[in-house]
Structures are given as C-alpha cells and as structure tokens.
C-alpha cells in the first residue's frame, strides 16, 4: 500500500487519527502531560513514519532542506495577516469601554503572553502546538502527494474535510451550528494554507501562519480584557472564510501538478 502516493496518503491520514484520537480519548488532549503534545503532533509524526516506511528519502531530505532555506524568510509576513483579521473583528464588535488596556500593564508580561505563554504564545504555538505539529504533515507531505492525482483545489478540499473531522474529537460538545461553522472555517483555512504553500514553498511561513491564526485572539484579550465579554469571533470567521473563498478561486486557476516555489 505504501508503494503508491495514494496509499501513502491514506495510511498517513489513518495513522494521524489513530495517534491523536487515541491519546485524546485517554485524556491527554491538554498541555499538562507530554502525551498531550504527542496528540497535537499526530499529522507530523504520521508523515515522518510513512516517509520512513515508504523509503521516501528524497522527500524527507527536501523537507529538511525546506527548514534550512533562509531565502524563504521573505514570505514570513504572510503569517502575520491573521493579526489584521483579529483587529478588524475586534473593532467591528467593539462596545463602549472595550479597548481599555489592562491594569498594571508590563512589557515583560506582554512579551511572555505574545511569544511564550502556552495559551497564547506565538513561538509556543509554532513549535509545541498546531504549527509544527500539523503543517509538516498536512502541507509539506500531503499537499504534494495529493497534487500528483488531484487538482490543487481538490487537494485542499480533501485535506480541509479530513482536517475538520480530525478536530471533532475536541469539538464534540459544540452544538450542531457551531460544528458546521467551525468545519467551514477549517476548510477555508485549508484553501488558504494550500494556496500559500504552493506559491511560497515555505514551511516556516505555514507554521507561523497557523500559530498566529490560533493564538493571537488570546493575546488581544490579554491586552484588552473587556474583549472577552464581546462576541467578536463571528467577524473573524467571516474574514477567514472570505480569504478562503479568494484562495479557492485562485486554486481553481492552477493546474494539476502545479510546481511549488522553492
């Protein structure tokens, strides 16, 4: 089964669910135990296992070189775009007194929350949560494998649907409406991430984009505590879905086997 690209992708997704869901079901979904981090790295761990078993030495080498390619730093600004979405969403939803800076603000505390805190730190999210934990598998491995037989848009859609289902183990308490909205948002992110990865070829850009998209809301709510009492998630999700639709249109214009930037 590992002799074909399709077989490798199937094993990759199945193994990702087995690793992450089994640990989640055992209660290791948080950050209090090392196995909680292993659960969050299901996609990346599975991709490495599949590449080793399938003897995909050239792909492993290419991904390793991707991490070392400093020229790709020119694309990192793309990873900061979600900050703009969060700010727009906060402004749209703002009420009187929303933007009151927290009491006893200290720059050192802010930098910790912004960069290193487990619940909001961008660097923490890059290396110990969804950034590095998911992007190596979903983008660096799955995208080029799927694009050998599917169009870029269909590849993004397949990843988006499976990626959203992967989250259901932690979303199961959400109501049906929230579940649908979150699923659409994840599929939209898949369109965005796939397009950005094809155009940049930069795994670091993907890791930063993923981390900022997951973490910066908590940074803003730390800066402005009154934001926690405002329903500003909907405008943010609308921004994400809009970006996803634009990316979908751009993906539709690409051809199968579209070459990636390097």
Explained architecture:
The chain is built from 12 helices and no strands. The protein has 262 residues and is an all-alpha fold. The chain has one domain (69-252). α3 crosses α8 and α5 (81-93) packs parallel to α11. The mean pLDDT is 90.
List the helices and strands and how they pair.
Elements: H1 5-25, H2 34-40, H3 42-53, H4 57-68, H5 81-93, H6 107-115, H7 122-128, H8 130-146, H9 152-171, H10 176-200, H11 203-223, H12 233-252
Give a short overview.
This protein has 262 residues and is mainly α. It is 70% helix and 0% strand. It has one domain.
Order of helices and strands: HHHHHHHHHHHH
Oligomer: single chain
The portion of residues assigned to helices is over 70%
The count of DSSP E runs of length 2 or more, i.e. the number of strands, is 0
Backbone structural class: mainly alpha
Which consecutive residue ranges, at least 5 long each, have pLDDT under 50? none
| Total helical elements | 12
The major sheet is characterized as: none
* Gap between N and C termini: 29 Å
Rg, Å, rounded: 19 Å
Shape: globular
Beta-strand residue percentage: under 5%
Compute the number of structural domains: 1
Round the mean pLDDT to the nearest integer and report it. 90
Q: What labels describe this entry?
A:
about 260 residues, mainly alpha, 12 helices, globular
């Amino acid at each position: 089964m590992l002799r074909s690209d399709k077989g490798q992708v199937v094993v990759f997704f199945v193994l990702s669910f087995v690793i992450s869901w089994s640990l989640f079901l055992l209660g290791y979904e948080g950050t209090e135990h090392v196995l909680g981090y292993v659960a969050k790295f299901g996609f990346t761990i599975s991709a490495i296992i599949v590449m080793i078993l399938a003897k995909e030495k050239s792909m492993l080498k290419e991904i390793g070189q991707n991490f070392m390619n400093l020229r790709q730093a020119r694309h990192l600004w793309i990873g900061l775009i979600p900050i703009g979405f969060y700010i727009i969403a906060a402004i749209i939803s703002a009420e009187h007194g929303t933007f009151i800076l927290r009491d006893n603000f200290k720059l050192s505390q802010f930098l910790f929350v912004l960069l290193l805190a487990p619940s909001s730190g961008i660097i923490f999210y890059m290396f110990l949560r969804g950034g590095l934990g998911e992007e190596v598998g979903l983008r660096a491995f799955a995208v080029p494998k799927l694009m050998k037989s599917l169009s870029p848009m269909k590849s993004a859609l397949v990843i988006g649907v499976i990626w959203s289902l992967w989250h259901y183990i932690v979303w199961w308490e959400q109501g049906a409406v929230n579940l649908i909205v979150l699923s659409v948002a994840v599929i939209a992110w898949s369109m965005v991430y796939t397009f950005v990865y094809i155009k940049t070829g930069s795994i670091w850009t993907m890791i930063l984009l993923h981390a900022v998209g997951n973490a910066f809301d908590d940074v803003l709510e730390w800066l402005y505590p009154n934001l926690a009492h405002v329903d500003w998630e909907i405008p943010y999700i609308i921004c994400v879905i809009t970006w996803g639709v634009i990316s979908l249109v751009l993906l539709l214009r690409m051809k199968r086997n579209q070459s990636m930037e390097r």
